[in-house]
Design a protein that fits this description.
Blueprint (H helix, E strand, L loop, with lengths): L3 E9 L2 E8 L7 E10 L2 H9 L1 E2 L2 E2 L4 E2 L3 E10 L10 E4 L2 E2 L5 H4 L10 E2 L16 E4 L4 E4 L5 H4 L2 H13 L8 E4 L3 H12 L5 E5 L2 H10 L3 E4 L5 H7 L1
Parallel strand pairs: 13-14, 14-15
Antiparallel strand pairs: 1-2, 1-6, 3-7, 3-11, 4-5, 7-8, 8-12, 9-10
Bound molecules: zinc ion (2 copies).
Length: 236
């Protein structure tokens, strides 16, 4: 087992460095994960370009990355359902378990939530763009070993899309329009199809993502870069 990790660490705007740091002994109640794959979120790019995302300002070196999959290499303590060698998708949020939201079973809205690779709290919670990193067992969602790490790393953004589709109610056989053909929009399109929606239209202001939407199965794409006449006609 290696005693060092190497991590993509942000020091300031456009100052991302691969930094090696020593790994201490794994703390009780934690699991250690070897990096498999990581997705680059829009927020990672904001951090990289400006050393901030909205109100979250990087005030000390921050390892980016919160769409991560990997393999469990060490466990210290109880980790129900998890074993060394398991492949996991990592839930980037760590909730407190005792605030009002946590108690009512909505840990995603935890008032004291920490989020991997985010400057929302100081000290910042380090992210997963690291050769090895630690998490709590509850953050680890086991995936079959035949699922590619790249696919498992999409679990976090896919969760956003599944939630969006769930919020939309019953969309079976209903026509759907999605605004934005970035990764979240496209995953939402796939999630809507999974729910058996009717015709699906994707609107965006850029040609390349719209072409990709068509490739992934959009029935119609609308390019809004030249105005919304086509969209208005659709609504009529
Ligand atoms: Zn993200
Ligand atoms: Zn909480």
């Amino acid at each position: 087992m290696t005693d060092h990790a190497i991590a993509a660490t942000l020091f300031g705007p456009q100052d991302l460095r691969m930094i090696e740091h020593p790994l201490g002994p794994l703390a009780p109640g934690m699991v250690r994960i070897r990096f498999g794959a990581g997705g680059i979120c829009g927020s990672d790019l904001h951090y990289f370009r400006h050393a901030r995302t909205g109100d979250f300002i990087v005030t000390s070196p921050l390892i980016l990355g919160h769409e991560i999959s990997g393999e469990i290499v060490e466990i210290n303590g109880a980790a129900p359902g998890l074993s060394v060698g398991d492949h996991v998708a990592v839930n980037p949020s760590r909730w407190c378990g005792h605030c009002a939201r946590c108690v009512e079973g909505r840990a995603n809205l935890c008032e004291n939530i920490y989020f991997m690779g985010s400057a929302s709290k100081t000290p910042h919670m380090q992210g997963g763009f690291a050769s090895v990193f630690d998490a709590i067992p509850a953050q680890c969602v086991k995936v079959p070993s035949h699922v590619a790490y790249q696919a498992a790393a999409l679990a976090e953004p896919l969760a956003v899309s599944l939630h969006a589709v769930a919020r939309a109610g019953d969309i079976a056989d209903r026509n759907v329009i999605l605004f934005g053909a970035g990764p979240i929009g496209l995953l939402t399109m796939l999630a809507a199809k999974l729910e058996g929606c009717g015709e699906i239209t994707v609107a965006d202001i850029a040609e390349a993502p719209l072409a990709f939407a068509s490739k992934l199965g959009a029935d119609r794409t609308v390019d809004l870069s030249g105005g919304d006449a086509e969209l208005k006609a659709l609504g009529a």
